[in-house]
Amino acid sequence: MSTDFRYPQDDTVTASEGLTPSQTIGPFFKFALPYDLGSGVVGPDHPGAFRLYGQVLDGDGQPIPDSMLEIWQADPNGDLVSTPGIYDEPGGDRFRGFGRCGTDEAGRYEFRTVKPGAVPTVDGHPQAPYVAMAVFARGMLRQAVTRVYFDDEAEANAADPLLSSVEEERRRTMIANRVEDGYRFDVRVQGADETVFLDVFAR
Amino acid sequence: MHEHDVMSGVITPETAARPLDPAYRVDDYRSSRLRSPRKALIVPPAGLTELTGPQFGSGDVRDTDADLTMHGDGEPIGERIIVHGTVTDDYGKPVRNSLIEIWQANSAGRYIQKDDQHPAPLDPNFVGAGRCLTDDEGHYRFVSIKPGPYPWKNHDNAWRPAHIHLSLFGRAFTQRVVTQMYFPGDLLFFQDPIFNSIRDEPVRKRLISSYDHSVSVPEWATGYRFDIVVGGRSATPVEDKGA
After folding, report:
1. What is the pLDDT of residues B146-181, one digit of tens each?
2. Do A157 and A163 contact (CB within 8 A), yes or no?
3. C-alpha A77: how far from its chain's center?
4. A13, B202 in Cβ contact below 8 A?
5. SS3 at position A143
6. Beta strand extents in chain A (DSSP E only)
7. Does residue B165 carry a catalytic annotation?
8. Domains and CATH numbers, chain A
9. Are A21 and B179 a contacting pair at CB < 8 A?
10. What is residue B50's three-state secondary structure?
11. Angstrom distance (rounded) from CA A120 to CA B239
């Protein structure tokens, strides 16, 4: 990369065919993407509904106020929803599997969800219950992806093929901690306690 | 197209810096410095959670959501445009019923969001957010106003080329992509670290739409085409499940 912000462009070069590359979500997405009902993965009456919340922090440990999280997960039986609908109200005890939440000025986010059932790998190996999470932010040229496991699933976590493949001291960065009203999970996008991020894209 | 089919194990920072997507860390883009993961990404075992994703239906969008010129009491100021294209997967198959969300600045280069400090006028008739679903051929179509370029503080005299942000779900969490569409012939590309964060020029140019006279509507709007290819593994598409 240059330091004088001049990147030569060759007008004779044309686009190649293939996947569309990623660009940052930028600073001005909050009027367009997050929505009031977005944080409800389940309706308020769903048995076992709890808060999954925390902060998104940068490499200096400062909150990232302009980030957005999305989560996707199986229902308590381990089934993945295939019926449409992410914008309408997840009223009553409905489960929709998807949540989207922008962070506030203190980098905080909060979802209402339930613990997913375990979903095995495609090869049939058991996995501990987890929620898939994507982190978008100004300053991130593509999303960062992680999994949110649960600290009260110690036995399943110990046998989980991903967790057990990660250095022991980093495993806790993918594990939400049980608190009074749900689970707390902080995302540290950089630094000594950097969250383990995954390449799930194979692209 | 799948450049590595490794199903588990650690990949190095070198392989993580794929030529397709930008690296997380692009020092010229100042706000990436403290927001870029630095440790190697880990390829997890493939699981159905990541290989699926939310599905969409007609209840998720209204017809007017795709026409950004209809979201105020009157007509917004600016060049009316039609932006259309297809969404396909990396096998060339159309991605149907997939949600596309877009957002953008107005014709003066100002976002409606209140923390946009650019001293350009807001347009009372323009919000700048829309969405639609792809049809059975994977086709989508928006009507909007051509966004203006705008200044930002990344470096001295820094300007973002005019762009429309797009968010796509594809069929699975693994196919989710957020990107930006640019316009042909923009004179601001040469100094933009976000556009140029994609190092490979033929790949970078996939983000530039083309003028499409065949969809321009006489006396009404000019047309641009922007085709999108989503990739990454997914589970069997829902519509193929023995329906």
Report:
1. 999 999 999 999 999 999 999 999 999 999 999 999
2. yes
3. 21
4. yes
5. coil
6. 50-57, 67-72, 98-102, 108-113, 131-137, 144-150, 175-179, 182-184, 187-188
7. yes
8. 50-188 (2.60.130.10)
9. yes
10. helix
11. 23
Please state, in angstroms and rounded to a whole number, the distance separating the CA atoms of residues B165 and B102. Answer: 5
Question: Would you give the DSSP letter of residue A165?
Answer: H
Q: Say what the alpha-carbon torsion angle A116, A173, B53, B195 is, to the nearest 10 degrees.
A: 170
For chain B, give the number of residues: 243
Would you say the ipTM is above 0.90?
yes
- A79-91: string of b/e by CB count within 10 Å (b at 16+)? ebbeebbbbeebe
Euclidean distance between CA atoms A41 and A38, whole angstroms: 8
The two tokens of residue B39 are 């440790």
Spell out which residues of chain A touch residue B132, defining contact as CB-CB under 8 Å.
none
The pLDDT tens digits of the residues spanning A70-110 come to 999 999 999 999 888 888 777 788 999 999 999 999 999 99
Q: Is B139 a catalytic residue?
A: no
Residue B225 CA to residue A68 CA, distance in Å, equals: 28
What is the Cα–Cα distance from A52 to B174, expressed in whole angstroms?
22
B116: left (phi over 0), alpha (psi -120 to 50) or beta: beta
**Which is it for strands B9-10 and A187-188: parallel, antiparallel or unpaired?**
unpaired
Spell out the residues 6+ positions from residue B130 whose beta carbon is closer than 8 angstroms to its own.
B65, B66, B67, B68, B71, B101, B102, B103, B142, B144
Residue of B nearest to A163 (CA): B44
Catalytic: which of B84, B110, B131, B160? B160
Respond yes or no: is residue B163 known to be catalytic.
Answer: yes
Alpha helices per DSSP H over B20-88: 48-51
Which of A110, A202, A19, A133 minimizes the C-alpha distance to B207?
A: A19
The pTM assigned to this predicted structure is: 0.93
The three-class DSSP label of residue A196 is: coil
Which residue spans within B94-214 are E strands per DSSP? Answer: 99-104, 129-133, 139-145, 150-152, 158-160, 163-168, 177-182, 210-211
Name which of A6, A141, A203 is nearest B190 (Cβ-Cβ): A6
How far does Cα B145 stand from its chain's mean position?
16
